[in-house]
Write a structure and sequence with these properties.
Helix content: 40-55%
Radius of gyration: 18 Å
Shape: elongated
CATH superfamily of the largest domain: Response regulator
Structural class: alpha/beta
Low-confidence stretches: none
Order of helices and strands: EHEHEHEHEHEEEEHHHEE
CATH architecture of the largest domain: 3-Layer(aba) Sandwich
Number of domains: 2
Strand content: 15-25%
CATH topology of the largest domain: Rossmann fold
Largest sheet: 5 strands, parallel
Distance between the termini: 48 Å
CATH class of the largest domain: Alpha Beta
Strand order of the largest sheet: 2-1-3-4-5
């Protein structure tokens, strides 16, 4: 498995290369955003690990650009900035996961392996509720025929709710399915993403599909 590490801090880059190499990965590196973008677009990588604060081109713009050009390579974003809104910013740019610094190397490896498992996971052809359609392979989402643009994490949340087939999904189950934690990390990430998804899916539609079930969780269904 080939990993591209885009990191300008020499000590961090060396640590990442050492840990990943010992775990059996082939590691390439770039020390600034422009070089990282060129390598990401020109090479064949299974995972990208990208810092946000980079010289020449920051990580957010780098990830946005590779997504704009059609790259679906999983991206793990690193940053010393760990606040919820800043994590949302990184994920919305197109990153698949976010790991704040400092981090445990065991967690880093677990996140990378998780992205690789997700990349190779076979998915059903299409999920629908009412006039909402979602293709898990391409993540194309449409409501009443109109295309809805979703970030990677918003798409995973929508898929989680759709797969429940109208049943209520608890916050803990959402965290497990979307962020792959087996515990509640004590943030309001679920609330933030449900609010953002609801704004995109239900706005300007007479029939809301995303339902809040007080004390239990969320469901995606046509309210009887």
């Amino acid at each position: 498995m080939n990993v591209l590490v885009i990191e300008d801090e020499k000590k961090t880059a060396a640590l990442l290369a050492d840990v990943l190499s010992q775990a059996g990965f082939t590691v390439s590196g770039a020390a600034d955003g422009e070089a990282g973008l060129k390598q990401a677009l020109g090479g064949s990588f299974d995972v990208l690990i990208c810092d946000i604060m980079l010289p020449k081109l920051d990580g957010l713009r780098l990830v946005s650009e590779i997504r704009r050009r059609g790259s679906a390579t999983p991206v793990l974003m690193l940053s010393a900035r760990g606040e919820v809104e800043q994590r949302v910013e990184g994920l919305d740019a197109g990153a698949d996961d976010y790991l704040p610094k400092p981090f445990a190397t065991s967690e880093l490896l677990a996140r990378v392996r998780s992205l690789l498992r997700r990349k190779g996971l076979a998915k059903p052809a299409r999920l629908t509720v009412g006039d909402l359609t979602y293709d898990p392979i391409t993540r194309e989402t449409r409501r009443a025929g109109r295309r809805v643009e979703l970030s990677s994490r918003e798409a995973l949340l929508l898929e989680c709710l759709l797969k429940a087939d109208g049943s209520v999904v608890s916050r803990r189950d959402i965290i497990t399915a979307v962020w792959e934690y087996d515990f509640d990390p004590g943030t309001n990430l679920v609330d933030v993403y449900v609010r953002r998804l609801r704004e995109k899916i239900d706005r300007d539609h007479a029939v809301p599909l995303i339902q809040t079930v007080r004390g239990l969780g969320y469901a995606l269904r046509i309210q009887p």
